[in-house]
Amino acid sequence: MNDNTEQDFRRINAEDVATCFVSDSAIEVIGDFRPETTPKHVLFDFDGTLSLIREGWAEVMIPMMAELLQATGTEEPTESLDAQCRDFVTELTGKQTIYQMIRFAAEVQRRGGHALDPLDYKNMYHDRLMEQIESRRTQLRESTDGPGRYIVPGSHRLLSLLAERGCELYLASGTDEEYVREEVELLGLAEFFGARVYGARDDYQSFSKAQVIDRILSSEGINGDTLLGFGDGFVEIQNVRDAGGTAIAVASDESQRSGKPDAWKRDRLIAAGAHAIVPDFSQADRIVAWLFQEAE
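The structure assignment produced for this chain is given below.
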């Protein structure tokens, strides 16, 4: 891959691709995929895949953007601005936050406004988001009952099962690395990843999930067929697939935790080339048994 930017969404699977469920499970297999190679290196996305700390982030980002666009003097109604922002934010979901801010800066300029550096917009958004979620982070720091509702169900069990089978676990997130590392600690996940936690930086071209995958493959001297990836964004699904690995999409229902797949995520992740879909990790034992081709 060797690309310093994150690629745009592209459709891999046709809209009418056939799917089926692994017996007695919520594992939805896409096309005729079946696991054939034992995973040795497993890459996880963070927000929406393991963590629910930042659930509701879009309802912070989109109103901020609409408010700033309105300040350009445009005569467009608030509802229209909100809808337009939601469209491009949704389109770019899965990439680093800075890409949404680059697009937003272009929207400001298009309306005759003076656009700030996209990094300034990113910092403005982040300040608002941290204010929104600080109570969650405080609750996690002070709680003695574990991460509770702020972690995707079954995450600890899945990570434990993979570690028991000798897998090296990696985490790559579009959220800034310093906050990812802190939130990994808050959710009790640090023991699984150690130093293998990677996140976004102000110099956004110095990080991408594709770069992390390249680093894994080159440092271990392995082919992509032993790489397994879990994520709820199109970027990691496409990156893992491009590397020759197995891409498992997590269509997590972040707000309701219903145990059912989020319909929008499911459709988008199938289109992005996912090999299979799970709603969460509540069936961790079943997921691992299937991936490792173990007798049930």
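Interim note for the steering committee: The chain has two domains: 19-52+151-291, 58-142. The chain has a mean pLDDT of 92.
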